[in-house]
Amino acid sequence: MDILKVRKSSPSKKLGKFIYMNVVRENKFVLQAIGAGAISQAIKAVIEANKLLAAKALSISIVPSFEDIEAEDFTTTGIRFYVIIQTSDGGRQ
Predict the structure, then answer these.
(1) pLDDT tens column, 21-74
(2) What's the topology of domain 2-87?
(3) Is 64 helix (H, G, I), strand (E, B) or coil?
(4) Which residue of 22, 37, 42, 89 is surrounded by the most CB atoms within 10 Å?
């Protein structure tokens, strides 16, 4: 499973398009964010992705989880958003 690292400077619309493309290609991934700004961008990107996915009768939801994340010489706590793909009939993929 790929980890997509989100930064506070990540443009939410571009990130939303990237999420959309990965969902359509059925790539498995999680979003990872450290800090309030990055978390905000991740959530806005999910909203953008859902706007695009609606045309394909798909949507995504996220399940957040605290994770210890290893950096260069320290460990910090971040949030990983596990992405769940749903079809228009409520089924999960």
Answers:
(1) 999 998 899 999 999 999 999 999 999 999 999 999 999 999 999 999 988 899
(2) Translation Initiation Factor IF3 (3.30.110)
(3) strand
(4) 42
CA distances (Å), 15 to each of 27, 38, 63, in order? 15, 12, 18
Within 10 angstroms of residue 4's Cβ, the number of other Cβ atoms is 20
Per-residue pLDDT, 42: 98
Q: pLDDT at residue 19 above 90?
A: yes
DSSP 74: -
The letter for the amino acid at 42 is A
Domain ranges of the chain: 2-87
29-33/58-70 β-pairing: unpaired
